[in-house]
């Protein structure tokens, strides 16, 4: 694949992309976060994990959140899920304040969170049965969702018999079976190998295209964010504040073939600039080198 080096700005949008965003912004607002601030108070003092974070997510929008480690991404998603309290501000889902966990929000985490003693089918059924749905009806519902994630043949398998990618497909089915308004995903593909991760990204896009779901997706991976998102919320650390909300100008439908298109390259360059700002040049004379280096290997050969 050849890199296309035509220089364009990440803000440049084709007519089709512009029209898509115009349409998207006319859709109803599902999630509204207003001046959200979260301060952790612990033995070591206070940490402002989020400061004045505000944004809106429209129906069927795909928003990715990126930012350096510790900038409050997980805090944000846990707060939206109702698993964490917040210090000030507002979180509205369909215009109503979030006060705790609810079926209107589905969660998928990085770590595998399936119940190891339950089959795939029972793992997905768990939430429905807890909510009082009769077993037969729950079983029919689950069959549909397992088909959607391509795991209908593994309904009776147990988590330890599945690959990492398959486990995350089950986790997605389990989150979607309750038909939430929004799917909250915290680095869900972070533990997968590169190839499986790529397949899961394509698979998630396909699911998103086919059902009425809004997605908020946290990632460290800039390519993943550009491939998936309509808009990317970029946070900065200490305290976690919004740096920019970027409209991704890469046209849909998306595929990894777009990785070297001018829009993709320009968007990635902007994200790099925000996440890894240029550092001050180091004054070589001021760097102190330990007088005695411990030699773990034979360094007689110059590796460079
Ligand atoms: N329970 C807690 N008590 C005190 N401080 C916390 C707690 N959870 C998170 N923090 C602090 O809040 C800040 C944001 O943490 P958070 O886990 O939300 O970051 P993150 O962006 O998800 O990081 P990563 O990219 O490494 O997953 C960090 O400084 C962290 O140390
Ligand atoms: Mg995190």
Can you describe what's shown?
There is one protein chain. The radius of gyration is 22 Å and the shape is globular. A six-stranded mixed sheet has the order 6-7-8-3-9-10, with helices on both faces. It has a four-stranded antiparallel sheet with strand order 2-1-4-5. The protein starts with 14 loop residues before the first helix and ends in a 29-residue tail after the last helix. The protein has eight helices and ten strands. Strand 1 and strand 2 (45-58) form a beta hairpin. The protein is of the alpha/beta class. It folds into two domains: 15-104 and 180-286, 3-Layer(aba) Sandwich (Rossmann fold); 121-173. Helix 3 crosses helix 4, helix 4 (135-148) packs across helix 5 (164-176) and helix 7 (222-228) crosses helix 8 (262-275). It has helices spanning 15-26, 73-81, 120-130, 135-148, 164-176, 194-210, 222-228, 262-275; strands at residues 29-42, 45-58, 62-66, 88-93, 96-97, 105-108, 182-186, 214-218, 231-236, 241-247. The mean pLDDT is 92. Bound molecules: adenosine-5'-triphosphate and magnesium ion. Adenosine-5'-triphosphate binds at residues 40, 42, 47, 49, 67, 69-75.
